[in-house]
Amino acid sequence: MTVDRYAESLCAWGGEFVASCHDADTGAFMFICVHSTARGPAAGGLRIKAYDAPVSAMEDGLRLSSAMTLKMAICDAPLGGGKSVIFVDPAVLEAQRPKILARFAALLESLHGTYYGAPDMNTGPDDMDFIYERSRYVFCRTAERGGSGSTTHHTALGTFHAILASAEFALGRRDLTGRSIVVQGVGGVGGALVEMLVRAGARVIVSDVVSARVDDLVSRFGVAAVAPEDAVTTACDILAPCATGGILNARSIPELRCAAIAGAANNQLETPEDDARLRDRGILYAPDFVASAGGVLHGVGFELWKWSEAQVDQAVERLGGILLDVFAAAKADKTGTREAAERLARSKLVR
């Protein structure tokens, strides 16, 4: 059964290849999923997570790498889409993180530049510094080590501009003053987004499975809070999913009470059909691979294009304009916004 699932997932994926290994000493399973090199070497974050099984880790990498292809294309980056995933017990990770990252670096180096890693869930610029000592194929090392550092600010900034564009298209005005916005997931990106929204005058409601994050934001900004199980269905103008993917599906979409959705979480739609479900309900959806593309513009802008901070900020702001074009195209063609955004991205994938 497991072998069949691996095969079925790979056949449905349509990417180029998956490199994998198992580190016997730590029990860690590692997957590097290269979806496309049509625009250049693949690139994407390294995610470390405790999945229910190795095949689930690979499937997450497949989905995320596909989204990275679209994200790179929408940004006109000279890179393709990829993602790397490490499945390991959290206690083992805490005790043997250097050994696990060193083994990953060896796998990364074996690809000779076909794929570049970057920070993602449970990894950061310090980890990229460590990996860089063993393989040069990484983005977003610390600034002290010659990298561009954390992508958190620009990922949040891109999501903020996606919310502005969504408000303009769905609600008739760009001004967020008094608008109710639920931010689901207030880690690094979600927390930074909350601060931007508060400064813009929005009425922010936060939720997270880590209660300390919620308590901190409530204390600092006076925002409201809802339980994690109620976040998606809380009445609001705009829902901003900034946690894990798959939250928009056949079960949750009928229960939504918002006019628009614009968040930083990857792969928010559980299935492609959920795009049409949102359209049918009249809920505007800012496709996640556009809304969260600020992180790509951060790494590529600073490290490949040698842009200034102002140039990166301007490029991130333009994501809002891209979304307005996507919204207009979807309305004209009577399609879902995800479909319209994919069509735009795929038009840039020329071999």
Automatic annotation (TrEMBL):
SMART domains linked: ELFV_dehydrog (SM00839)
Keywords from the named record: NAD, Oxidoreductase
SUPFAM superfamilies (alphabetical): Aminoacid dehydrogenase-like, N-terminal domain, NAD(P)-binding Rossmann-fold domains
Domain of life assignment: Bacteria
InterPro entries: Aminoacid_DH-like_N_sf, Glu/Leu/Phe/Val/Trp_DH, Glu/Leu/Phe/Val/Trp_DH_C, Glu/Leu/Phe/Val/Trp_DH_dimer, Glu/Phe/Leu/Val/Trp_DH_bac/arc, NAD(P)-bd_dom_sf
A Pfam family this chain is assigned to: ELFV_dehydrog_N
Ranges for domain Glutamate/phenylalanine/leucine/valine/L-tryptophan dehydrogenase C-terminal: 149-351
CDD domains registered for this protein in UniProt: NAD_bind_Leu_Phe_Val_DH
Protein's recorded name: Glutamate/phenylalanine/leucine/valine/L-tryptophan dehydrogenase C-terminal domain-containing protein
Organism ancestry: Bacteria, Pseudomonadati, Myxococcota, Myxococcia, Myxococcales
Organism: Pendulispora brunnea
Keyword NAD listed: yes
Protein family according to the UniProt entry: Belongs to the Glu/Leu/Phe/Val dehydrogenases family.
